[in-house]
């Protein structure tokens, strides 16, 4: 079986120049041509538009967040939106855990609704219920 390796995507000025050179192609075609796609186990190409657009924004030097930390480093701020990853996971980033003052090892109970997930910290109010 001839296995193709996922491409190394273009970044920085190289990305900007390639996008400009591709002219009238669609966004998806430009993303694919710049290496922003992955190959599934079955050899199907999946274009990663978010990575492509974020790399293009970074390459152009556009500051969307408008805030930087006190040490001058930018980092991500909480957008209050997440997407299901290609492996089916939902990742809640450190911007949220820091904002909530959570520490490694903190545990949560998960309750699933029709279209929502509710997290309840273990030991938070269950101790109060047990005392009653």
Give the topology, please.
Layout: H1 12-21, H2 27-33, E1 37-39, E2 45-47, H3 49-60, H4 94-99, E3 108-112, E4 117-121, H5 126-131
Antiparallel strand pairs: 1-2, 3-4
Helix pairs in contact: 1-3
Describe the structure.
- The protein is an alpha+beta fold.
- The protein contains five helices and four strands.
- Among the domains are: 12-60, no CATH class; 94-131, no CATH class.
- The protein has helices at residues 12-21, 27-33, 49-60, 94-99, 126-131; strands at residues 37-39, 45-47, 108-112, 117-121.
- It has a two-stranded antiparallel ribbon. A two-stranded antiparallel sheet has the order 3-4.
- Helix 1 (12-21) packs across helix 3 (49-60).
- It is elongated.
Tell me briefly what this model is.
This is AbrB family transcriptional regulator. By secondary structure, the protein is α+β, with helices and mostly antiparallel strands. The chain has helices at 12-21, 27-33, 49-60, 94-99, 126-131; strands spanning 37-39, 45-47, 108-112, 117-121.
Number of helices: 5
Let me know the number of strands: 4
Gyration radius over CA:
21 Å
The chain-level structural class is alpha+beta
Largest sheet: 2 strands, antiparallel
Mean pLDDT over the full residue set = 79
Query: Strand share of the residues?
Result: 5-15%
The side-by-side strand order for the widest beta sheet comes to 1-2
User: How widely separated are the two ends?
Assistant: 65 Å
Helix content: 25-40%
Order of helical and strand elements: HHEEHHEEH
Parts with pLDDT < 50 across at least 5 consecutive residues:
68-72, 126-132
- Based on Cα principal axes, name the global outline: elongated
């Amino acid at each position: 079986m001839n296995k193709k390796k996922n491409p190394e995507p273009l970044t920085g000025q190289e990305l900007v120049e390639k996008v400009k050179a591709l002219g009238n192609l669609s966004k998806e075609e430009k993303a694919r041509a710049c290496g922003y796609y992955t190959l599934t186990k079955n050899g199907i190409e999946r274009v990663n538009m978010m990575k492509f657009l974020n790399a293009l924004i970074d390459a152009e030097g556009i500051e969307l967040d408008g805030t930087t930390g006190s040490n001058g480093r930018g980092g991500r701020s909480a957008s209050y939106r997440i997407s299901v990853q290609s492996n089916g996971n939902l990742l809640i980033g450190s911007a949220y855990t820091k904002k909530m003052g959570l520490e490694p090892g903190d545990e949560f109970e998960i309750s699933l609704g029709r279209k929502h997930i509710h997290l309840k910290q273990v030991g938070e109010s269950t101790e109060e219920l047990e005392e009653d």
